[in-house]
User: Which sequence fits this backbone?
């Protein structure tokens, strides 16, 4: 059995998709609309984003993107800061990691 996809409820599917495409290299699949976007990554994992104005996740809910190196994590952290996102510097926890609040109301972990 293979996990086929994960659907996330977001306040703005387009903004959330643009963020994931710009910073994490996801690709938009054909079709979709302003309320529903299908994304795919290099491992062919499908992430669907569905607009829902009542979006609320538990405090520790997040999605994560593993990078090749700590330098890659540092570079993305700086890029997000430069682009105006409120991100703390990476720290050593279970990995070299930081979190960012993405448009649409989801939290993203970046780690190596």
Assistant:
């Amino acid at each position: 059995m293979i996990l086929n996809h994960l659907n996330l409820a977001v306040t703005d599917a387009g903004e959330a998709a643009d963020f994931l495409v710009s910073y994490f290299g996801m690709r938009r699949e054909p079709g979709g609309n302003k309320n529903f976007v299908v994304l795919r990554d290099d491992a062919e994992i499908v992430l669907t984003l569905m607009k829902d104005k009542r979006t609320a996740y538990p405090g520790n809910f997040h999605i994560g993107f593993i990078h090749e190196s700590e330098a890659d994590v540092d570079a993305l952290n700086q890029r997000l800061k430069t682009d105006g996102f409120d991100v703390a510097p990476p720290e050593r926890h279970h990995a070299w990691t930081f979190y960012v609040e993405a448009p649409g109301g989801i939290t993203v972990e970046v780690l190596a």
